[in-house]
Amino acid sequence: MKKTLLAITLIASTLLISCKKKNESPFEASPIAKAIKLETQTITKEQLDRIPEAYRVMVKDGGTIEHITYKSKNYYGDGAENEKKANVYLPAGYDKSDTSKKYKVLYLMHGIGGDENEWGMKDDQSLVKKMMDNLAIKGDIEPFIIVTPNGRSGSDPDPSKTYMAFYKFGQELRNDLIPYMDSHYNTVADRDHRAMAGLSMGGMQTINIGICECLDLFSYFGAFSAAPTSYEAAKVAATIKSKPEFPVNYFYNICGTEDSIAYGAHAAAAKLLPRLCPALEEDKNFRWQEQRGNHDFGIWNLGFYNFAKVFGGK
After folding, report:
1. Radius of gyration over alpha carbons of the chain, in Å?
2. Tell me: the pLDDT tens digits for 85-127?
């Protein structure tokens, strides 16, 4: 624990280094600000074309997106009760009254500058929704539910103040969000039908929280450009080895080769995992994918598309 706190403290100090220009605040000049800028830039047509065009078109009578609120707590703070927002994608044909039909669930996490809307899962124009609708209608996957929550378990929305709240999200997942989803939707409420994935800080959460805290809750994992402070491979491997009763069904990773923010940390966390952990085998239940690109949605949309086919695969 002391080593973990020390590592986080060192990273925090690095993230809040002094500004490059005298008229900039420390936050504006920090790697956090750089990550936020990259997360919000518009992707190019070349990046978008990594997803086949046939999977980016709107499907008539496709799935629906709902916007929910659920009760939680300020886990990074005073523990006071609060309400959190999330978006939920429901596949075409989902019928709340038909409890005989149950679905897998993917908890899809955002980056340090985002919130529950960063994946764009707000309306019918959502690329995530379009990809899911097309994957399902073409028979590539068994349809599943997606949840995009706010991954900060704190009450202050300012990313320069609450990045530490990302590390507390495991408590919210276990105590609040998963119980809400399993009680309000027709889900298969077990780890073999539950996945966690995310971009940047959400990728870090997938590794640190999904695998290393909640292996009893999830069996599928997707890390897209996992951020600095992701646990290194030795710790991840040790966690998996210590819990043979909770096997990893699949761990998918993708990172841009030009990503100066995440590549080193993500590679240290996952690239060589199969060498350290016999329970993970390349091309069986593990994949490390490197793709030309940076810290942006050109990589993350492709990561989602590939991971959706794994989690929803027939």
Report:
1. 19
2. 999 999 999 999 999 999 999 999 999 989 999 999 999 999 9
Residue 7 pLDDT > 70? no
| Location of structure tokens 């916007």 | 67
Average model confidence (pLDDT) for the chain? 89
Q: Please state the rounded mean pLDDT for residues 46-53.
A: 88
By CB atoms closer than 10 A (0-12, 13-18, 19+), residue 57 is: exposed
